[in-house]
Specification:
Helix content: 25-40%
Distance between the termini: 60 Å
Number of domains: 1
Largest sheet: 8 strands, parallel, barrel
CATH superfamily: NADP-dependent oxidoreductase domain
Shape: globular
Length: 340
């Protein structure tokens, strides 16, 4: 497994990071099996594990903690988690305030069974909290030794720049990483997020390289056992999803011509961008992990990358919902209308 340096921190991380969202009630509820998958990933050379407090309401962090129990396992892993999403009915059990950060980090440390985090990330922007407040609290965690580095996740480019400016002007620790969604079908971040991250020397940890299963090689229209919300993501009567289905058909042909499974083509595409440090893979089963690891050495030549650009133009999200972030000015009508 090849290594890269994480955002100028000097920390060496594998090109694949193991995403733990599927460990627990959201995916694989078998703790023993999930631990075996984590160990298999580590044995294969992955040294970077990413989770979040919200994943299965903390269960994912608990499973990761079980897998890393013992000095040698923990010492060899770059461990990352995230905070922001509400963890209880009280509105103060979430967000990016100092009040919540100081409690959230202790909860995550306890569930993970560790006394420090290598990377602590803000899961989403919080329009109700000044970025200075958030960075001030995170800086205290860095200085206390509980956190080695801090980062953001799914931040638009303007919020990335605002955070970097706030750190420079106020003397805060700065975001060393950004974790955005990125796949062949969701390339919107190429326009501004990735250039902003490069400008500030940030490491980039991408998630969703298989676009929630669209690039898994399976027929996404035939899924079973999905919730109504999940099923809506694959509703091909929606024009944006119909375009995705057409693109996937072309990409399958391209992958076959290149002699690659579609999953390997998809992962190699994300790794090919010079701004990307590590690609988060999120297997639910051991077989899925084996398949994804088998594509770790796949490299796409210019002809294949040019054809991908023809199928999905650079900077294009075929479905805007795949950006997983809607600015408040678009989601809250009151921000677009004068009060009367």
């Amino acid at each position: 497994m090849k290594r890269r340096i994480l955002g100028g921190t000097g920390i060496s991380v594998s090109e694949y990071a193991l995403g733990a969202m599927m460990f627990g009630a959201w995916g694989n509820p078998d703790h023993h099996d999930s631990v075996r998958i984590i160990h298999a990933a580590l044995d294969a050379g992955i040294n970077f594990v990413d989770t979040a407090d919200i994943y299965s309401s903390g269960e994912s962090e608990e499973i990761v903690g079980k897998a890393l129990k013992g000095g040698s396992r923990r010492d060899g892993v770059v461990l990352a988690t995230k905070f922001h999403n509400r963890m209880g009915e009280d509105p103060n059990t979430g967000g990016n305030s100092r009040r919540w950060i100081m409690r959230a980090v202790e909860d995550s440390l306890r569930r993970l069974g560790t006394d420090y985090l290598d990377l602590y990330q803000v899961h989403r922007p919080d329009p109700d909290t000044d970025i200075d407040e958030t960075l001030d609290a995170l800086t205290d965690l860095v200085r206390s030794g509980k956190v080695r580095a801090i980062g953001s996740s799914t931040f638009p480019a303007d919020r990335i720049v605002e955070a970097q400016w706030a750190s420079e002007r106020r003397g805060h620790a700065r975001f060393r990483t950004e974790q955005p969604p990125y796949s062949i079908l969701a390339r919107g971040i190429e326009a501004d997020v990735l250039p902003a991250a490069q400008r500030y020397g940030m490491g980039v940890l991408t998630w969703g390289p298989l676009s929630a299963g669209w690039l898994s090689g399976r027929d996404v229209t035939q899924g079973t056992g999905r919730s109504a919300l999940e099923q809506a993501k694959f509703d091909t009567t929606v024009p944006e999803n119909a375009r995705k289905l057409e693109a996937v058909a072309e990409l399958k042909k391209l992958a076959a011509d290149a002699g690659l499974p579609l999953t390997h083509l998809a992962l190699a595409f994300v790794r090919a961008h010079p701004a990307v440090t590590s690609v988060i893979i999120g297997p639910r089963t051991a077989d899925q992990l084996t398949d994804l690891l088998a594509g770790a050495d796949a490299v796409l030549d210019d002809a294949v990358l040019d054809r991908i650009d023809e199928i999905v133009p650079p900077g294009t999200d075929l479905n805007r919902a795949d950006s997983y972030y809607v600015p408040p000015a678009l989601s809250d009508p009151s921000l677009r209308r004068r009060s009367r």
